[in-house]
Amino acid sequence: MAKTSQIVRASRPQKFKVRESNRCQVCGRPRAFLRRFRMCRICFRELSLRGEIPGVVKASW
Q: Is the per-residue pLDDT at 21 higher than 90?
C-alpha cells in the first residue's frame, strides 16, 4: 500500500506532462501497472478472479 501523500501528489495535475506517473486506482502502487485497466497486476488479479472486471475471463486451453 502506497503512502497517502504519494497518492495525493500523483493525482494532482503536474507542471509538466512528463512528470505524470501511473499509479493503481485501487491501492496506489506505481509498479507493474496495466494501462488498459488503470490498476496494478495484484489488484487486477484479485478483482478478475472475483469476476468484478467485465470481459475478463481466466484462460483455459
A: no
pLDDT per residue as tens digits for the range 23-58: 998 998 999 999 999 999 999 999 999 999 999 988
pTM of the shown model: 0.78
- Residue 42: CATH number of its domain: 4.10.830.10
Domain enclosing residue 25, as ranges: 4-50
Rg of the chain on CA atoms, in Å? 14
b/e string for 19-30 if b means 16 or more Cβ within 10 A?
eeeebbebebbe
Q: How many domains does the chain have?
A: 1
Cα 59 from chain centre: 21
Domain contains 59: no
